[in-house]
Write a structure and sequence with these properties.
This protein is α+β, with helices and mostly antiparallel strands. It is 31% helix and 24% strand. Strands 1, 2, 3, 4, 5, 6, 7, 8, 9, 17, 18 and 19 form a 12-stranded mixed β-sheet that branches. The protein binds glyoxylic acid and manganese (II) ion (MN) (2 copies).
């Protein structure tokens, strides 16, 4: 599909890329003439690259990329490095009881803060750009403002959220979820594979878990929240668009399921007398895929692992743990799909002689971006001479949690070949610099808007 329409300053194009509708201003008539010099850049790309490369040493894997799980020693070391950068940028540092790191730069007026940043934890064998670009890009914005002696009306706060990925406790966007009030003390007893609870880890992060609720940020106490991030999908890269303006972030619901059968001798138990939990779980995995594929739209469903017990070649698995994760911009669709999946799991159970029980372990509602923040990003990109596309985010982000208490916007930069959560994850230094420049300009635009609101 390809539709052209005239806007006051540009001819814009709607293009369908895969299943995603992108509103692309690439090819719009540029506001400046061809001969005009490129707009000045405020941020320092080499300086930013230097810090990103240094951060990628924390948890670096031999095959490339990083393993820097939230609540691990290596993440703790990386946090110390990032706090050092914040200090050098003259930010006033505060760590809240959920371990979220805030670095504050004072404003000239008594106004709510503009908050921007991301996370520095990764998935196992993940990339070095997911989260890190937005976290260190935010600090670069502060350094650039310091270089230019720019005073803002609003206080500015750089944030590094705790444990955004959450693979080992099953909770994504943990720090921002606590700050937004979506998560509370009920998460503290969750145990990771190392046997330590979240409460234990928060103590290691120097926090008192009993005060977790103090990490809540009151609704209305932030002027806006902005997150710079790599797209983690192919849309910008394939269409050669420099900046993505995020329309909204998908919701995610995750269940931990346990299929229980009977462990027995693999050599002596006849095939028709088995209660094989892994056979049932394997059928369930395919059920998830079938149900999710049966609806039209961009919804996705994943079974990310299976842990079979006792896990020996000569024993029929007696128990299998596996997660089910469903994502979509429409929370009702997630519920509808889950209903169908449960009915099909029950059928598998009765046919395989197994019992499967699932409990919700993560529930993140979809979040829409604020139209005025989107406009600020659009204008920031236009003045920087960069092309833009409007698109949804299929990945979860901390900004989605904070959208429940403050106007939210996200800036995406292209991901090479659309690869993320893998060692090959890469965004070019130019694209990262573009995104950071847009973040810089967005912050200043929002700072100048009336009444401390975008
Ligand atoms: C986080 O990156 C997620 O979408 O799982
Ligand atoms: Mn991620
Ligand atoms: Mn991320």
């Amino acid at each position: 599909m390809r539709i052209s329409r005239k806007l006051p300053t540009a001819t814009c194009v709607l293009v369908a890329v895969g299943a995603t509708l992108l509103v692309i201003t690439l090819g719009c008539k540029p506001a400046r003439s061809e001969a005009a010099p490129a707009p000045a850049r405020h941020i320092n790309s080499e300086r930013l690259q230097g810090t990103l490369e240094k951060l990628s040493e924390f948890g670096r894997n031999p095959e490339g990329g990083v393993t820097r799980l939230g609540f691990s020693q290596v993440e703790l070391d990386a946090r110390a490095y990032v706090m050092g950068l914040m200090k050098e940028a003259a930010l006033e540092i505060r760590v809240d009881p959920a371990g979220n790191i805030f670095g504050r730069r004072a404003g000239s007026e008594k106004l709510p803060a503009l908050l921007f940043g991301s996370h520095i934890d990764s998935v196992p064998k993940g990339g070095a750009f997911d989260g890190s670009v937005g976290s260190l890009g935010a600090i670069e914005v502060i350094r650039a403002l310091n270089d230019g002696h720019v005073k803002t009306r609003h206080p500015l706060e750089v944030v590094v959220w705790t444990n955004e990925e959450g693979p080992h406790f099953g909770v994504s966007a943990l720090g921002s979820g606590v700050a937004a009030g979506s998560l509370g003390p009920e998460i503290l007893d969750r145990k990771g594979e190392d046997g330590l609870t979240l409460a234990d880890w928060l103590r290691r992060y120097g926090q008192d878990p009993a005060h977790l609720a103090d990490a809540r940020i009151a609704r209305g106490s932030l002027a806006a929240v902005i997150e710079l991030h790599i797209e983690q999908g192919p849309n910008l890269y394939e269409t050669k668009v420099q900046i993505g303006i995020v329309q909204g972030i998908v919701g995610l619901k995750r269940w931990r399921c346990v299929a229980t059968g009977v462990a027995n001798h693999a050599g002596t138990t006849p095939m028709n007398r088995r209660k094989d939990a892994l056979a049932a779980a394997a059928r369930d995995l395919l059920v998830v895929r079938e149900v999710v594929r049966a609806e039209s739209g961009r919804q996705v469903g994943t079974v990310g692992y299976m842990k079979a017990e006792p896990g020996a070649a000569n024993v029929i698995p007696g128990q299998v743990e596996f997660p089910v994760e469903l994502r979509d911009l429409d929370a009702a669709k997630i519920e509808r799909m889950w209903e169908l999946i449960q009915q099909r799991f029950a059928k598998t159970d009765s046919e395989e002689g197994v019992e499967t029980k699932c409990v919700v372990i993560n529930d993140i509602a979809p979040a829409l971006s604020d139209p005025s923040v989107q406009n600020a990003i659009r204008e920031a990109a236009r003045t920087a001479g960069l092309s833009t596309a409007d698109l949804p985010s299929g990945a979860v982000h901390d900004a989605g949690e904070i959208a429940r208490i403050a106007p939210m916007g996200m800036i995406f930069v292209p991901s090479r070949d659309g690869i993320s959560h893998a060692p090959q994850e890469f965004s070019s230094w130019d694209d990262i610099a573009n995104g950071t420049e847009v973040l810089y300009r967005t912050i200043l635009r929002l700072d100048q808007s009336k009444a401390g609101r975008p």
